[in-house]
Amino acid sequence: MALPKEAQDRTVLDRKISEDFLHGRNLQVTKHFENAPTLVWAIEPIDSPSRLEQPKPPIVLTRLEGKEHDTVSIRVNGSFTELTRQQQILSVYYLGQLSLEQGSLDSITLDENLRTQEMYTIIDVLEYSRNGDFGQLINDLGDENGWFYTRFPQG
After folding, report:
1. pTM, whole model, 2 decimals?
2. Position with higher pLDDT, 89 vs 53
3. What is the distance between the alpha carbons of residues 106 and 134, in angstroms, rounded to a whole number?
4. CA torsion sign, 26 to 52 to 61 to 151?
5. Tell me, what's the pLDDT at 132?
6. Whole-number pLDDT of residue 150
7. What angle separates helix 116-131 from helix 134-141, to the nearest 10 degrees?
């Protein structure tokens, strides 16, 4: 007998999420290699408005290759707030995975329009991503409905 959809959504093999997993949640990962020596990944909703209306993807991982060492940074734009909570968590987690593959994460730049709650979500999810434990992320940050994460109690 098949597991309920919610149970399937919470199962991720190898403690990692993939582009296919994100795509199933209406997120697309765009890799930009043309601007060497800068390597960029961007994550945005599949059904986002045209690039003219939304020039910045919600969240971007950039690796700058230097003579001494590589610098990896994550930039989160204001349009991050337009993602669902699930999409926010998955986007940050995925880019945290990529940063581990590319080198140490040296900087995080957060859009000044982000609310405090969203900033803490980003910081917390990156920590889970570094530990490579998606299952624990869901246990700690998800409620019975799966993806509603609040660092501080409401009300």
Report:
1. 0.76
2. 89
3. 22
4. negative
5. 76
6. 54
7. 150
